[in-house]
Automatic annotation (TrEMBL):
Gene3D superfamilies given in the database record: 3.30.2020.30, Clavaminate synthase-like
Keyword Oxidoreductase attached: yes
Transmembrane segments: none
Record carries keyword Oxidoreductase: yes
Record's protein name: TauD/TfdA family dioxygenase
TauD/TfdA-like domain sequence ranges: 105-345
Length: 372
């Protein structure tokens, strides 16, 4: 049974439901009222101006059952919540599974199946969300072979390098990715705003000697750093370097901490790009702390404890969460053959949207056509 109590001059509501206690303010309940007078029935968007609700709004009457809560407010408005909706914390996402090299999951998907079947596509996107990467096999061998699957998820993110671009050794390379040298673990394009959310790396040829891909879970690295060196962790969440990319036609610059936290104090994005980082001339004590903290983080993301080694075959594609994973490669020699990858970006919002819409459609077919 649900019991309801009003407190603080009837401006707060306490619900005791299934051995849990929930507290809500009258203002919060009023602006979230689910009725058609408050929210558009199709878009779900608010019709009233929430900032105009009187700050002294009170709850005149509250009645609760095991299924519903009915409220009358002092502004004359009445509404009814279903308790399932009221207690929904908007946490439908499955939790991320952090990993080290010994426990790294190898999530795989088939290109043709994901292209044609919504359930398979959702499985692929769930694995990408959960583990930070997924390997897709059976990608067509043409230069834009990944494009049809990108189109199933969201628009291709275009940059100053175009859409889907080559990653191979060329003369007079405009970026170190276009050379044969090894690349330290890094996240892509921290100098952009917004930073691309997901990297799509399609292998056309990989016969060169070397050139193995590496992955490290940046969120796991952050967790270990917080456990082993709390002061270093605090420093990397506090100090904000800038990142810069310049060529004859482009000047890109942005900033952000190496470990960015969300409103709950949990890592939501990692940045690491030795090639493009510019730390400002901070006070000497702060710089010394930052350099020591960065070194501790670097040792984690380059150590064998966290490093997963992969070598993509032609027709395989690696999709990487660029907010979470750090990727790199070993050096390669062209004497053994060609190493030719094609790379594109898809933003985070469209990828998350597609996954959540598929979840709704496949778990609740009646919701199709309703606002997502």
């Amino acid at each position: 049974m649900t019991h309801v109590i009003t407190q603080a001059n009837r401006q707060r509501l306490v619900l005791n439901h299934q051995d849990h206690k929930y507290e809500f303010t009258a203002l919060w309940l009023r602006e979230r009222s689910p009725d058609d007078a408050t929210r558009d029935p199709y878009t779900g968007q608010r019709l009233i101006e929430a900032a105009e609700i009187p700050l002294d709004l009170a709850i005149e009457r509250a009645e609760a059952s095991d299924e519903e809560l009915t409220l009358n407010f002092s502004d004359g408005h009445s509404t009814t919540f279903t308790l399932a909706t009221l207690f929904d914390k908007q946490t439908s996402d499955s939790p991320r599974q952090l990993w080290d090299a010994a426990q790294a999951p190898i999530s795989e998907a088939n290109f043709a199946t994901a292209l044609e079947d919504d359930s398979a596509l959702l499985d692929m996107l769930d694995a990408l969300h959960r583990n930070g990467f997924v390997i897709v096999s059976g990608v067509p061998a043409d230069s834009d072979g990944m494009q049809p699957l990108i189109d199933r998820i969201g628009p291709l993110r275009r940059t100053n390098w175009g859409g889907i671009a080559d990653v191979k050794s060329v003369a007079n390379a405009y970026d170190l990715t276009m050379t044969q040298r090894g690349l330290e673990p890094h996240t892509d394009n921290p100098y952009r705003d917004p930073i691309p959310g997901y990297i799509w790396l399609h292998c056309l040829a990989n016969a060169a000697e070397g050139g193995d891909s590496t992955l490290a879970d940046g969120f796991m690295a952050a967790r270990l750093l917080r456990q082993r060196d709390p002061s270093a962790y605090a420093c990397l969440t506090r100090v904000t370097p800038s990142f810069r990319y310049c060529d004859a036609d482009t000047y890109l610059e942005s900033e952000g901490p190496l470990i960015e936290l969300d409103s709950r104090g949990e890592p939501v994005r990692v940045r690491y790009s030795n090639r493009t980082e510019y730390i400002p001339a901070l006070l000497a004590k702060e710089l010394e702390a930052y350099y020591a903290a960065r070194k501790a983080f670097y040792e984690l993301i380059t150590g064998e404890e966290l490093t997963l080694h992969l070598k993509l075959d032609p027709g395989q594609m690696l999709i990487i969460d660029n907010y979470r994973l750090l990727h790199g490669r070993s050096a390669f020699q062209l004497a053994g053959g060609v190493r030719h990858m094609r790379q594109g970006y898809v933003d985070r919002d469209s990828t998350t949207s597609r996954r959540r819409v598929l979840q709704q459609r496949l778990t609740n077919p009646q919701s199709q056509g309703e606002p997502a």
